[in-house]
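Researcher: Hi, I'm a grad student and pretty new to this. My advisor asked me to get structures for two proteins we've been looking at. I'm not sure of the right format, so I'll just paste the first sequence and hope you can take it from there.
Model: That works fine. Here's the first sequence with its C-alpha cells right after it:
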Amino acid sequence: MPLSFKTKISILIIVIIAPALSMGINEIFKLFPNTFIDTSPIFFEEDRYARFYYDNGTYGIQQPQELVIINDLVNSSYTNITLTINGKFIGQYWTHPNGTVYQFGKCQNNYSIWGLNTALFKYRGLSIVGGEGIVFSIIDPIGFLGPEGRNYTAVLTKSVMYFPDGIKYKGLLGAHASFEVEIFNNVSRIGTGVYDGTSGMLFSWSGGVEGQKLFLYETDFIISQNRLFSISIKLSSAIVLIVITYIFIRKKWKNKFLSKLYLPQRERIITMAYLILGNIGLLIEVIDIWYYCLFGYIGCMLFHLFYILSLGITIYLLKKSPISLAAAGTEFAFIYFMTLYVGHWYYGLVISTGVFMSYIWVLFSKSWRRISKNESKLRI
C-alpha cells in the first residue's frame, strides 16, 4: 500500500518541526541571558587568545605572518592585552573587561580595533535594525593603524555574512552574521573591518598606513555559543519526534482519532526511513552554512556523498526515478569542480539547498515504472 499524500505531508511537517523548535527555544533563552547562552559575550572578559594571519604590505615578504592577541584578566576592572607578531612583542595596553580602552588611567568609552560594542544595535534575522550609520569611537593604543594613541571613528556601513574560507580554522564553526565598518581619521577613510554581530570581535581588516591585511583563523573564545546551544536542541528534538512518531504509527489505538495513525509494517518502515533521511538532510544543510569550518572541506563533501548514496539506495529500493538526485548531485559537483578551478576550498555551499530539494523530490515522487509483486516487497 503506497503512502498517502497526507502521510507524506505529515512526514515533511515532522521533519521541519525540529529546526523550527530549536530556533524558537533559542530565541526564548535569549530573553534570559547568561542561563545557557550569552547574547553579547565579550572577548576581553576572560583569559583568551586570538591568532590572525597578517600581511603588513611590505614588499618581498612572501610568507604570511602571525599576529597574536593575548588577554590576561586581572580583576573585574582590568584586562591586560599583549600583541605579538611572529612571537615578537609589538605592544601592550589595558582595557576594561567590557572592551573599552584605558587612557590616562580612565576609560572614556573608546574601543580598540580588536573589538567593538554590539549592545548599540540588534539583529533581526540577518539584518541589523537601525544599525547602519552607528558610530563607534576607537583608539589605536599601540600604533597599529598609525601614530600610537590616535583616535579614530568607525562607522557601521552594513550587515554582512562572513564566510571564513580556504584555510583550517580553530574556534570558528562556520558562517557568522556580522557587520562591516569603515574607519576614518580626521581627513579620510583609512580602512575597513568586519566584526562578529554577536560579540563584536574582529574577523578581518584591510587598511592602515601600510595597507595592512589580517583575518582571524584561531581563537579559544567561544564565538558561536548560540548555535552550539541551538544544534543540541535540534538534535534532541529530532530524536524525540522520531521516537514519538514510531510509537504512534506502530500501536493499534482504540481511540478513533489515534487509530488513524496506525501504519502496517511495510509503510511504517518506509515512513521511519523518510523521517530519518529528512532530519539528516536538514542537518547537512545546517552544517553547510553554520558548521563547515568544524568538519572542513573533506568532511562536508563526505556528508554530501553519504547522503547522495543513501538517497540512491532509497530510490533503488522504492523504484523511484534517478532524476530525483539531480539537485543534490549538481550541488556536490559544483563545489568539487569550483574547488579544483580556484585552487582552494571554494565555499559555494551557501546555495545549500540541493540535499533537501532531492529529499523532497524523492518523498513526493511516484514509482517511475510498474513493479511486479515478485520484484520487490517495498513499494510506494
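Researcher: Oh nice, that was easy. Here's the second one.
Model: And its structure:
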Amino acid sequence: MGSAAQSRMFRMGFFGEVYAELRKAEWPTRQEATRLTGVVIAIAGLVGVILGVLDFLFGLLARNTLS
C-alpha cells in the first residue's frame, strides 16, 4: 500500500474512533448546559472584577511610590 493510501486509512480509522468515543460520551441536557454556561460567565466576570480592582490598587501604589 502506498504512503497516501496508508495515510488515508489512518485518518479514516482515527476519525472513526473519535466519532465512536463521542457517541459514548454522556452529554449534558440543555438545562444543565445553560446553567453551567451561566456559572462560567459569572465566575469569569467575578475574576475580571477582582483583577481590575487589584490592577487599580497596584497602579495607585506604584504611582504613590514613584512620586
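Researcher: Is there anything I should tell my advisor about the second?
Model: You could mention this: The helical segments are 3-24, 30-66.
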